[in-house]
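lol forgot to send this yesterday, sorry. C-alpha cells for the thing we talked abt
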C-alpha cells in the first residue's frame, strides 16, 4: 500500500489513528532515550541535550493529541496500544546495533567515541526519515480536516537535520559516504516496519 494511502486509511478510523499517534509517540520517546544513553558522562554538548529534550517533547505532544480522538485510548505503550508492536520496538534498536557494527569497522573507535558516532549517524538517519514521514502525515490530516496537526514537529525536525549535518561535518570529512551506508540500513528497517503497520491496519479494518 502506498504510504499516503496508508496514512489516509489510518486517519479515517479513530481507534487506528490513536494507535498510530501512540506508535509515533513511542518512537520519539525511544529516540530521546537513545540520545540520552549516548551521552558522554562529562562531555555533553548543549545541542545533544536540546535534541533529547525536543524528542521527549514530541513524544508528549503526540501522546496528548490522542485526547482529541478519545482520552480513554492508548494510555500506555503496551503492545495492544501500538501498531505493529514488534516491528515498532525493534526498528530503532536494530538500527542502533547495525549502525554501531558498521561504524566500529569503519572508524575503530573507543566505547565512548562509538556512542557519540552512533548518536550522530543514527539521529541523522532518523531525521532524514522524519523529514519524509511527517509532511505526508500532515497532508493526510489536512485532507481529512483533522483537529490533529504535526506542523510544529515538522519545523523542529528540519532544524534537527541541519544541526546533525553541522555536527557530522565536524566529525568526519567523508561522513556522507558513511551516512549512505546507515541510510541503506535504515531504509530496509523502515520498509519492514511499514509493511508490518500496513498488515496491522488491514487487519483492524476487517475486525
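and heres what i got for the seq, position by position
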Amino acid at each position: 500500500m502506498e504510504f499516503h494511502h496508508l496514512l489516509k486509511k489510518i486517519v479515517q478510523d479513530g481507534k487506528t489513528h490513536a494507535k498510530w499517534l501512540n506508535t509515533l509517540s513511542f518512537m520519539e520517546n525511544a529516540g530521546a532515550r537513545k540520545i540520552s544513553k549516548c551521552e558522554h558522562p562529562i562531555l555533553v554538548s548543549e545541542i545533544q541535550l536540546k535534541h533529547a529534550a525536543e524528542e521527549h517533547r514530541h513524544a508528549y505532544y503526540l501522546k496528548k493529541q490522542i485526547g482529541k480522538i478519545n482520552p480513554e485510548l492508548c494510555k500506555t505503550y503496551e503492545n495492544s496500544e501500538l501498531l505493529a508492536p514488534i516491528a515498532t520496538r525493534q526498528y530503532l534498536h536494530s538500527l542502533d546495533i547495525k549502525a554501531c557494527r558498521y561504524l566500529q569497522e569503519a572508524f575503530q573507535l573507543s566505547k565512548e567515541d562509538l556512542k557519540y558516532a552512533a548518536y550522530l549517524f543514527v539521529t541523522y538517519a532518523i531525521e532524514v526519515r522524519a523529514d519524509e514521514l511527517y509532511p505526508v502525515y500532515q497532508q493526510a490530516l489536512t485532507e481529512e480536516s483533522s483537529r490533529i496537526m504535526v506542523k510544529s514537529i515538522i519545523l523542529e525536525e528540519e532544524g534537527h537535520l541541519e544541526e546533525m549535518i553541522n555536527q557530522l561535518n565536524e566529525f568526519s570529512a567523508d561522513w556522507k559516504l558513511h551516512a549512505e551506508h546507515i541510510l541503506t540500513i535504515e531504509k530496509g528497517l523502515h520498509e519492514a516496519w511499514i509493511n508490518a503497520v500496513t498488515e496491522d491496519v488491514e487487519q483492524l479494518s476487517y475486525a
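The two ends are 19 Å apart (CA to CA). anyway ping me if u want another try
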